[in-house]
From TrEMBL, chains A, B:
It holds the Pfam family polyprenyl_synt. GO terms for molecular function: metal ion binding; prenyltransferase activity. Belongs to the FPP/GGPP synthase family. This is Farnesyl-diphosphate synthase /geranylgeranyl-diphosphate synthase. It comes from Haloarchaeobius iranensis. The keyword Lyase does not apply. Transmembrane segments: none annotated. Its cofactor is Mg(2+).
Length: 349, 349
């Protein structure tokens, strides 16, 4: 058994190594060109940071699948299972670009002012530019996916996965918005929503690596399942962290989900336990809420067992996700994918 | 020489026949499913009407290229030049779906309340739903393109064309927005903007038919050029019609481009002729402007030769566009593509 701290170190190092390469590739694939304002706005959030977890998953899946030592091969000319060179890095950039597009449009829809510690794109620029920057990233992601130069039938499969994933993300966001005015969402519905809104992009990241590198359908399906499981676990952990991590580390007000009446697995569970979730925090603006108010709310949720329920659900998902990787060769990269899964629910922020 | 009225009849009949099939295919490719509100909003503008000109161009190019009699073949199993069945109708729906997505997002950006005589999606629903409906159509268009089931390398080419077209549309829209605050746009810049904002989707419609049906690169390029030329002519004619067609036929206030200080080929030409374009219409809301005010403005533009300049530019583009079709076999469908080109600048609304 690896202890969480060693694992955190391993994962952060692996993510950090790839992040540098991914960031470099983003500037190559998305140069600032005319019209400059549009491309600057498109790059704004990508340049503001982000762990690059999804690209990392995609790249490490490639390594595990083809049984090469982590960071030993050129991601730009990555040998597939049938010995064709594939630009796996382009695919990694593609999924990150989709992630960035969804964040830009989500921030408009949720009217969030801050993201990654900087103003949201529609605040830094304006609504029109933010809509258009998101739309530009959207098509760019497909252009970049074609540049992977995998065998055509594999590019078609990856493109199809990317497109259907985007559709599901929209459906998930639509469900999320509709949940805001509903008071009867149950945990299963909530899990389905985060599967569509968040987990599918992890699933696509893992599956697309398999598709481009000519893995069998069964392996691609298992990779997709891994991403769905750990992606849901990731989102549940995000919801837990919103309640438990100090605001300055979180980059936004702790407990903002409660203030904004956003449903989480924690609140839908608590409601089922008879907690008056709507009354947990009386203040209705994140600017005005106080830390003691949040502390009280968290204590109530802990008492109802809701935070432990969320933690346990996330742990179960990670366990199942890891077991799906048994279709892959037993190697260092596969171990890293397991560590990433564990890290996603052990991370402190 | 066909006279314009006979031609109009021919084109409207051809467009009408295909429109029915396209509308049927839209309901098949985009069924209303859960989450219903999202899919209803996505379909709202598609169901509100539209001539389906781009799908018609795509389908007729397919007929001209493979030398079959118009409306004689099944678009869902259309024989390519290499005798593979291609679902050409799916491609036709795909470009129309992209067109609809751009209208939804453009109406938000331009804050337009009406479209096709009905409220814009962000007015009928709300901003969040309109953004998301556009995003859903965006990915659906790529999913539907994959369903054409053409040989994989052909699907990749068509997908790439669709994606780069969407990027160009965003660039064009960004230029259009930036023009609103500039007073020194010249005709060449304006023509470049409408090429990116409008013409590329006509170009893509024509080229994608060629790509999917296994045409040579030279033919695909010529088809793309045809679309670019007639697409620009179409937009210029739209700008002319905004000044010359009564409001009730237009479905919006005549002269609204002038009221909103929107640049057109007409106004950028007039400015070069020394006309004080900003002072043509003093009223700054389309609700308050009067018909005599528009009449005076139009008279000034006519005097400056700007409307004739726009008409002549459109005619030249149509002429060049038609000449590009000489790469195709001489047949009824090719004649129809020429008629469509002429009709686009002869139409009254």
């Amino acid at each position: 058994m690896t202890d969480p701290q060693t694992r955190e170190q391993t994962v952060l190092e692996a993510v950090g190594q790839r992040r540098e390469l991914v960031n470099e590739a983003i500037t190559e694939e998305l140069p600032i060109k005319s019209p400059e304002r549009l491309y600057e706005a498109s790059r704004y959030l990508l340049d503001a940071g982000g762990k690059r977890l999804r690209p990392t998953v995609l790249l490490v899946v490639g390594e595990a699948l083809t049984d090469v030592e982590p960071m030993s091969a050129d991601y730009r000319e990555f040998q597939s299972l049938t010995d064709e060179p594939v630009d796996l890095m382009a695919a990694a950039v593609s999924v990150e670009v989709i992630q960035s597009f969804t964040l830009i449009h989500d921030d408009i829809m949720d009217d969030d002012d801050l993201r990654r510690g900087v103003p949201a794109v529609h605040k830094e620029y304006d609504l029109e530019t933010a809509i258009l920057a998101g739309d530009t990233l959207y098509s760019k992601a497909f252009e970049i996916m074609v540049e992977t130069d995998a065998p055509p039938e594999r590019v078609v499969a990856a493109t199809d996965t990317l497109a259907s994933t985007c559709t599901k993300i929209c459906e998930g966001q639509s469900l999320d918005v509709s949940f805001e005015t509903r008071r009867d969402v149950d945990p299963d519905e909530y899990l389905e929503m985060i599967e569509q809104k968040t987990a599918v992009l992890y699933a696509a990241s893992a599956a697309i690596a398999g598709e481009l590198l000519s893995a069998d359908e069964e392996v691609v399906d298992a990779l997709y399942g891994y991403g769905l499981d750990v992606g849901r676990a990731f989102q549940i952990q995000d919801d837990v962290l919103d309640l438990t991590v100090p605001s300055d580390q979180l980059g936004k007000q702790r407990g903002s989900d409660l203030v904004e009446n956003k449903q989480t697995l924690i609140t839908v569970h608590a409601r089922e336990q008879g907690v008056d979730v709507g009354g947990l925090v009386d203040t209705d603006s994140v600017e005005a809420v106080t830390e003691p108010e949040i502390d009280d709310a968290v204590a109530t949720l802990e008492e109802a067992g809701s935070i432990e329920y969320a933690n346990q659900t996330a742990r179960d998902l990670v366990q199942r996700g890891k077991s799906r990787l048994e279709v892959l060769p037993d190697n260092e990269a596969r171990d890293l994918l397991c560590d990433i899964a564990d890290y996603l629910i052990e991370r402190g922020y």
